[in-house]
Design goal:
The chain is mainly beta and 77 residues long. Helices cover 12% and strands 44% of the residues. The chain contains one helix and five strands; from the N terminus they run αβββββ. The protein has a five-stranded antiparallel beta sheet with strand order 4-3-2-1-5, with no helix packed on it.
């Protein structure tokens, strides 16, 4: 993905997620399927990327660094 595509995708986000917000994956990342929800634990470069912690019933918590275009903003905590 080039920078113009990344900017276009970012423009589609209605509100900028912040640390502590819940987000949902828009595509599979690592061993996590699209639709998985997690909590932002760190925001890099004003929302260009996030460190998100995901917890599932059968696995220990997993923290993943993902681009802003890979999540949708679900809710503020």
């Amino acid at each position: 993905m080039n920078s113009a595509e990344a900017l276009a995708m970012k423009a589609q986000v209605k509100s900028h997620p912040k640390e502590g917000d819940e987000v949902t994956l828009t595509k599979s990342v690592a061993s996590l399927p699209a639709g998985t929800t997690g909590i932002i634990v760190h925001d890099y470069q004003d929302g260009e990327a996030f460190e998100v912690e995901f917890s599932t019933a059968n696995k220990p918590a997993l923290t993943v660094l993902i681009g802003s275009f890979e999540v949708t903003h679900a809710a503020r905590h």
